[in-house]
TrEMBL record:
Keywords assigned: ATP-binding, Nucleotide-binding
Species of the source: Algoriphagus iocasae
SUPFAM superfamilies xrefs: P-loop containing nucleoside triphosphate hydrolases
Name assigned to this protein: Putative ABC transport system ATP-binding protein
A Pfam short name: ABC_tran
GO cellular component, one term: plasma membrane
ATP-binding keyword on record: yes
């Protein structure tokens, strides 16, 4: 369902990247490991269509997202890609449930409070439904960030360092929840991290490195 071919990216002449090709089938998981600065977030943003590659092609299902732009790209992303960011993006003036309703609305979906309750229940957050996101603990915020990403049952979920700030117990809990929720909605999952604790949790992983020859 995800296919990347010969993707490269350049912030500027002294900061360019060539990424390995990725082939991910429907419903499967991939862990992308790499040290700080190798371009993990950059790659995730390319796959999610937040950045445009310098060369190469990225397809999600039959759609070459590298050929989409503007509203078309936003619409496709809203319906097909869920992102778990390093720092969760909430609208602080809204409750957790209202934040989730907003994500449903932005993707053009009907507001579905039942789905919101199901997802929050699976994440152990049902009691926080009406809570303001800033009142959640760090572990709860990370779980709430997963709710934002999975609420619309996207085909692909991209998670950027979802466990970096968490202790071991919360780290493994968040990974289990991510794997469980994506499986239930039939989504594929990519996690990028430098957190070596996750390696044993994924059968499928690639190591991102940056070769000297690529640094001009
Ligand atoms: N907007 C930008 N303009 C210029 N350089 C950037 C920009 N964003 C990131 N970089 C640089 O590109 C490199 C890769 O950044 P990226 O965030 O993709 O790495 P990463 O592997 O995710 O790192 P970390 O694990 O520390 O988050 C870094 O050297 C970073 O400083």
């Amino acid at each position: 369902m995800l296919n990347t071919q010969s993707v490269s990216f350049e912030y500027n002449q002294s900061n360019s990247f060539e990424f390995p090709d990725i082939e991910l089938s429907e419903g499967s998981n991939l862990l992308i490991l790499g040290e700080s600065g190798v371009g993990k977030t950059t790659l995730l943003h390319l796959i999610g269509g937040l950045l445009k590659p310098k060369t190469g092609k990225i397809s999600i299902g039959e759609t070459a997202i590298t050929a989409l732009k503007g509203k078309e790209l936003d619409r496709f992303r809203g319906a097909n890609v869920g992102m778990v960011f390093q720092r969760p993006h909430f609208i602080q003036s809204l409750s957790l449930a209202e934040n989730l309703q907003m994500i449903q609305f932005l993707a053009g979906k009907n507001q579905d409070l039942h789905r919101i309750k199901v997802v929050l229940d699976r994440l152990g957050l049902i009691s926080k439904l009406k809570e303001n996101p800033r009142n959640l603990s760090q572990g709860e915020q990370q779980r709430a960030a997963i709710a934002l990403a999975v609420i619309n049952k996207p085909r692909l979920i991209l998670a950027d360092e979802p466990t970096a700030a968490l202790d071991d117990k919360n780290c493994f809990r968040v990974v289990e929840l991510l794997k469980n929720l994506t499986k239930r909605s039939g989504s594929s999952l990519i996690i990028i991290t430098h957190d070596q604790r996750l390696k044993s949790e994924f059968a499928n992983s690639i190591n991102l490195t940056r070769t000297e020859s690529l640094i001009h």
